[in-house]
Amino acid sequence: MSEAATRRGTTSIAPPDLLASLDPLLREWLPRQRWFAGKGRPVTGFTLVSATELLEPPVASPGVIHLLVQAEQHHQPIQTAGTPGHSSAPHTDCYQLLIGVRQALPPHLAPALIGHVAHGPLAGQTVYEGLHDPHIAELLIERLRLPGRLGELRFGRDTGVDIPFGLVPRALGAEQSNTSLVYGDTFILKLFRRVVPGVNPDLELPRALARQGCGRVPAPVAWFESHEQGPAAEPLVLGVLQPYLKGSADGWELALRMLAKGEDFSAEARALGRATAEVHLALARALPTATLGRTQVEQIAGGMAERLEATAQAVPALRPYAPGLRSAFDALAQLGAEGRTWTAQRVHGDLHLGQCLRSPAGEWSLIDFEGEPARPLAERRMPQPPVRDVAGMLRSFDYAARSHQPWAPEWADTCRAAYCRGYAEVSGSDPRTEPVILRAYETDKAVYEVLYEARHRPDWLPVPLAAVRRLAAPAPAHDPGPGR
User: Fold this and answer.
1) Residue 286's domain spans which residues?
2) Is 481 among the domain residues?
């Protein structure tokens, strides 16, 4: 590759030949990855979106190729616990891959092996998951220091924040839908594996909150995107570098530890409610809000009812409760018909204890603003009632209590009430004073959980089903709502 080509980020490897040579290896390797979204359906082909050599072998060792590929999957019966398979429509998903290239792998990289290339431009080479290689991880943060373009990749950063040299990288192994690298306990780089065109809220919302001076969310330091040609082309956000909150405790793990010790978590839940409200208020200042009138409320309630019907078809255990659950959505639609309105704004979209970190000083931060990855990006970026986030957190307290043996419902009730009190202290509005919309959103979340657990973790299905039984019961007129 020429020096000029290297600067442009173009590749001397003919993309069709490159993809053809990697195709049989990726078909076997990709579905085994935790972040692969198309579980249960074989990959039938790949389409290359872009290929950029970050380091070219054998000039540099290792070589690094950044790939965006669309994995094609024909429809095939999807098995859901307790029900015959049903067909899904054909579709493609775009994945980000960093392919390391070496003649042979050292022992410490053996688990990262993708395979040995038999033909094409990389014939005789070994390819592997590059993000497990410290050399490649170092290359990424070096490149994030330099705003500008490299082929179809565009790098941006906050030039007011210094990125020191010599930060030692390590991979985090806990995530499922993305991959994260920590650099010297100073920064964390989140790389999105399944990418879609458009503005990713995991970059958009933290930047908006930083402009508002909201310290509850780590502000992006650097990021990179893919920019295709064409007037209608939209960027694909590929990675975001943020401060690493060293020593912080994951909210889910912290709750489980305190629950196991029989310790009260209500003070933490209350503080977390305050933090949530602070973020909501900052988002309402930073980005446009909307008023949900009759039409919008009926659409929201109708969408919830449709998801319930689809889930009841897929999960027979839900069917006996469907009429009671539907009443929650009917009640919401009725309030809309009577002229009740709500304010909608940008929200977290997938808030639960695992998306919260508590610092050693006791301060809570919220992370991972991507929203529910399975939902379309346009939906994830729509203004929503803040109660959607509240309902997600209330469900998370339930999950923690159900994960403990014996089940601790009183612990969950106490935490849910404390969280709502903390939220009201900052926002001026207690979510429990709106029991109809809170019940509707918590019910919708529980239905989502039923489908997820039935498909992915059948042993966990009793957890959301316990909430389903409670939510399906008729709510007394004096019921102050979930979280009491």
Assistant:
1) 249-472
2) no
The answer to whether residue 26 scores a pLDDT higher than 90 is yes
The closest of 415, 155, 136 to 270, measured between CA atoms, is: 415
Task: Among 198, 214, 244, give the residue marking a domain's end.
Answer: 244
Q: Please determine, for residue 476, whether its predicted confidence score (pLDDT) is greater than 70.
A: no
Tally the domains of the chain: 3
The Cα 72–Cα 69 span in angstroms is 9
- In the chain, what is the straight-line distance between the N-terminal and C-terminal CA atoms, in Å? 66
Helix and strand numbers, DSSP H then E, in the chain: 13, 20
Residue whose pair of structure tokens reads 């994951």 in the numeric block: 250
User: CA–CA distance from 300 to each of 10, 287, 391 (Å)?
Assistant: 46, 21, 15
Say if residue 331 is in the same domain as residue 465: yes
Average pLDDT score, the chain: 89
Q: Is residue 358 domain-resident? A: yes
- CA 45 to chain centroid, in Å, comes to 26
Q: Which of 244, 271, 295 is the last residue of a domain?
A: 244
Task: Looking at the structure, tell me whether residues 98 and 208 fall in a common domain.
Answer: no
484 assigned to some structural domain: no
Residue 348 near residue 216 (C-beta atoms within 8 A): no
CA-wise closest residue to 483 among 441, 435, 437, 440: 435
Find the CATH number of the domain harbouring 468: 3.90.1200.10
Residue 374: pLDDT band (50, 70, 90) is confident
DSSP for 125-164, written as a single string: -EEEEGGG-HHHHHHHHHHHTS-EEETTEEEEE-TTS---
Do 189 and 99 have their domain in common?
no
The whole-number pLDDT of residue 16 equals: 72
Question: Are 426 and 284 part of one and the same domain?
Answer: yes
pTM: 0.89
153-157: list long-range contacts, CB under 8 Å, 24+ apart.
153/9, 153/52, 153/66, 153/224, 153/225, 153/226, 153/227, 153/238, 154/224, 154/225, 154/226, 154/227, 154/235, 155/222, 155/223, 155/224, 156/222, 156/223, 156/224, 156/225, 157/221, 157/222, 157/223, 157/241
